[in-house]
Amino acid sequence: MAFSVGSDPEFFLRNKVGKHVTGIGTIGGTKKHPRMAKHGSVQEDGCAVELNSVPSTNMQDFIANHNLILGELEDMLKPLDLELDLYSPSVIFEKDLLLSDQALVSGCDPDYNAWTVSENEIVDLYDTPIRAAGGHLHVQFEGCASVQDRVDFTRVLDYQLGVPAVLVDTDSNRRTLYGKAGAHRPKFMEKDGFNGIEYRTLSNFWLRSNQLMAYVYQQVEYCNKHWKDLIQDADYLGEEIQDIINRGDAQDAAAFCDYNTVTTYV
């Protein structure tokens, strides 16, 4: 089974005066019926807009594929005098923008916690003006043969990517809603032949630059090659890993990565 990495990151929009607006009624497309583009697909997702990248088997294609579909999405928004906000994993919206049913959408299916091996609760957005944007990764990894393999691989991703990501992604509001340690969806052999996981801990921070895209790909690739060797350490360090990710503590993340020789971006 070949290794590949795709994604379905979400972004918020700004109007021409720099104010955040929702993506409702902008580009069209839904989870079930996305709007197809030349280099992937796009859709509205709650208050955000989302793109779906073409899966990549090397770092160069991973970066290029994301830039291509990002460019297509930006072109769709230009006639509407809207632009992508690549720097906000969460936004606090004015209440008058959150009155529609679509503004209360918090995900179509539940995800799971790889550490507790249990289903995460679907977030109720009714009483909060915060909306969050994920940078979920779809990883087809070598040796994936069972639910336990998916759990183990997610834990290793937390160890090698979720913790060091805290050093770059300093947004705290998103983690009150989504992006806790171990968040993933198992992906089985489906019509597209995908067999792996959707890693849901990261925000969209890594799409800010080619360098960040490269870092994320390299960390996932490293996990693909070494996850069976790393899982024992990940399990041993599990409580610390979860605590750092869930609190978003950059100081503790830096100390953890230094002590455990985890490659960081900064």
Please describe what this structure looks like.
Helices cover about 30% and strands about 20% of the residues. By secondary structure, the chain is an alpha+beta fold. The chain has a single domain, classed as Creatine Kinase, Chain A, domain 2. It has a six-stranded antiparallel sheet with strand order 1-12-14-13-9-10, covered by helices on one side. A hairpin with a 2-residue loop joins strand 5 and strand 6. The radius of gyration is 18 Å and the shape is globular. It starts with a strand and ends in a 7-residue tail after the last helix.
Topology (elements, then pairings):
Elements: E1 4-7, E2 10-15, E3 20-21, E4 35-37, E5 40-45, E6 48-53, H1 59-77, E7 82-85, E8 90-92, E9 112-113, E10 118-119, E11 130-132, E12 137-140, H2 147-165, E13 183-187, E14 196-199, H3 210-236, H4 238-247, H5 250-259
Antiparallel strand pairs: 1-12, 2-3, 2-6, 2-7, 4-5, 5-6, 8-11, 9-10, 9-13, 12-14, 13-14
Helix pairs in contact: 1-3, 2-3, 2-4
- SS-based class: alpha+beta
The low-confidence runs, each spanning 5 or more residues with pLDDT under 50, are none
The portion of residues assigned to helices is 25-40%
How many strands appear in the DSSP assignment?
14
